[in-house]
């Protein structure tokens, strides 16, 4: 059973479009995250939710809006896509403890043309 | 603020060679330290962790020791395999609900 699953795995779209990425975890974790990984493999946190409440919101354009309908789901909606949004987006989950490891999904490769 | 510095890559080794990947950190508070590994086409997964000074984390033949005096958490393996080819990330966290700070990652390629 997949612990953290993201859909879709690949997403190719044109500039200006709106798209969503879905994430679900079946680990019973309270905290979920979205990370962006660029072409040089650098990872940057975007958002973190704990039990459906936003707790970390890094400097991310307003075009990105996370939504957590329940603590097992954290979706990412992106409006007016730009070329610079092309990256791999990772969802992750953990318990809200300092030494609790993150469990990552396999990523969504977004390509904006 | 918190930061993690990893040695520059990529690193290419022959099978059975000794591996060291350097990681140093700066942190406010008392961090927990982690190494994550990312195999091609996959998400990151925890390789090992250490939560206090002088702790040694180990897994799959990899080891790293939490050195508070040198603020380091270097990753070592005595004999690498082709299957160890991946991207390795050092990371730290201070406090529950605080973000995990990652280093830039380093790509390891192991030749048969």
Chart the SSEs and their pairings.
The complex is a heterodimer of chains A (113) and B (112).
Chain A: E1 4-7, E2 10-13, E3 19-25, E4 31-37, E5 43-50, E6 53-57, E7 64-70, E8 73-78, E9 87-94, E10 103-104, E11 108-112
Parallel strand pairs in A: 2-11
Antiparallel strand pairs in A: 1-3, 3-8, 4-5, 4-9, 5-6, 7-8, 9-10, 9-11
Chain B: E1 3-6, E2 11-14, E3 19-21, E4 23-26, E5 32-38, E6 44-50, E7 56-59, E8 62-65, E9 75-77, E10 86-93, E11 101-102, E12 106-111
Parallel strand pairs in B: 2-12
Antiparallel strand pairs in B: 1-4, 3-9, 5-6, 5-10, 7-8, 8-9, 10-11, 10-12
Main sheet properties of chain A: 7 strands, mixed
Distance between the termini of chain A: 34 Å
Q: Kindly, what is the distance between the CA atoms of the first and last residues of chain B, rounded to a whole number of angstroms? A: 41 Å
What does the overall shape of chain B look like?
globular
By DSSP (H or I, 4+ residues per run), the number of helices of chain B equals 0
Give the % helix of chain A: under 10%
Cα gyration radius of chain B (Å): 13 Å
């Amino acid at each position: 059973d997949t612990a953290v699953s993201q859909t879709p795995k690949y997403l190719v779209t044109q500039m200006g479009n709106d798209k969503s990425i879905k994430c679900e975890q079946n680990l019973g974790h309270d905290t979920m995250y979205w990370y962006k990984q660029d072409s040089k493999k650098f990872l940057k946190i975007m958002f973190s939710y704990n039990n459906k409440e936003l707790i970390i919101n890094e400097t991310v354009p307003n075009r990105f809006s996370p939504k957590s309908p329940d603590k097992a789901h954290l979706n990412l909606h992106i409006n007016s896509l730009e070329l610079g949004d092309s990256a791999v987006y990772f969802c992750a989950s953990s318990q809200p403890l300092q030494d609790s490891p993150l469990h990552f999904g396999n990523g969504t490769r977004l390509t904006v043309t | 603020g918190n930061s993690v510095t990893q040695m520059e890559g990529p690193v290419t080794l022959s099978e059975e060679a000794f591996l060291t990947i350097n990681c140093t950190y700066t942190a406010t508070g008392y961090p927990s330290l982690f190494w994550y590994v990312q195999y091609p086409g996959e998400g990151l997964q925890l390789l090992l962790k250490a939560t206090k000074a002088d702790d040694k984390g180990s897994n799959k033949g990899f080891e790293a020791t939490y050195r508070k005096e040198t603020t380091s958490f270097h990753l070592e393996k005595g004999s690498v395999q082709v299957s160890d080819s991946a991207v390795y990330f050092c990371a730290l966290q201070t406090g529950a609900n605080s973000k995990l700070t990652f280093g830039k990652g380093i790509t390891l390629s192991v030749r048969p």
